[in-house]
Design a protein that fits this description.
Alpha-Beta Plaits, 4-stranded parallel sheet, 8 helices
């Protein structure tokens, strides 16, 4: 059935054929054909844009178009035929075969791994404090004071002409970061204007346009991007870079990556790949 929905598109003039988007798409919707990334089949694309942050040239974009509905069962068959791991949110291949034989479908068994790393279910548990940390726990604590100096904080709600943006140091952060990093308020928020959003589920192009308007209307000293280690979160850096390019701004942009267990990732670990 055809309907208007979100779908990934590829600007072949910008595509350099690196293939990062192919590995970043858990549904196998993209492939490198004749040296360029191409959408294999529109029914394989869920339109969420997890691959956007993997593209170093900005060739990928999520747009509203008339397309066939996303088909999880077709994705499962497609991945199974390629010998690729099927994400947990897709139908179980064994159940699909039972359906084809007229038998009742069985629910997909839970797996410890699979699918987009940003959607993978994990239990980190409570890490015990070291003896040094225990020794430094204050016996009497004063009330904490937030470093937040403005409202609203959601990027989609902040007008580009808000007075607090003038001469600001921007903190562009993914909304999973504050609850993941215990010292977020003190480490990142102090002295900065926070703009909060999700590069996976929100409209990335609207974020690019908003940040570009902010840069055009205000003198911005610098932009600090803080994002999670999962691939779909890398879109925050891409948003900042593309907004600066659109605005003709050379504002300094730095990126910090937070691991899922609440640590600052060391760029030397290989897990952080800068944009560009």
């Amino acid at each position: 059935m055809r309907a208007t929905r979100k779908l990934i598109t590829v600007n072949e003039e910008l595509c350099n054929g690196c293939g990062n988007c192919v590995t970043g798409c858990a549904e196998g919707a993209l492939a490198i054909i004749d040296g360029k990334a191409k959408l294999v089949n529109e029914v394989f694309c869920d339109g969420l844009g997890a691959c956007l942050g993997e593209c170093p040239t900005g060739a990928l974009k999520v747009v509203e178009v008339e397309a066939e509905d996303f088909d999880p069962a077709a994705v499962t068959r497609h991945l199974e035929a390629q010998g690729r791991e099927v994400p947990d949110h897709m139908p179980d291949p064994a159940s699909l075969r039972l359906d084809q034989m007229g038998a009742a479908s069985q629910p997909r068994a839970a797996k410890p791994h699979g699918g987009c790393p940003g959607s993978r279910v994990m239990s980190m548990g409570q890490r015990p404090a070291s003896p040094c940390q225990q020794a430094n726990v204050p016996r009497q604590q004063s009330a904490s004071i937030s470093n937040l100096t403005h409202w609203p904080i959601q990027l989609r709600l902040v007008p580009p002409t808000a007075p607090f943006l003038q001469n600001a140091r921007l903190l562009l952060t993914a909304d999973c970061v504050p609850p993941s990093f215990p010292d977020f308020n003190e480490r990142f928020l102090a002295g900065r204007i926070m703009l909060l959003g999700c590069p996976k589920f929100d409209d990335a192009q609207s974020y690019i346009d908003k940040v570009a308007d902010i840069l055009r209307n205000n003198h911005i000293k610098d932009i600090t991007v803080v994002q999670m280690e999962v691939p779909c979160c890398a879109g925050m850096t891409a948003i900042a870079q593309r907004a600066a390019h659109a605005a003709g701004s050379n504002v300094p942009i730095t990126t910090t990556v937070i691991t899922r267990d609440g640590q600052i990732q060391d760029p030397a670990s290989g897990g952080f790949r800068p944009f560009g």
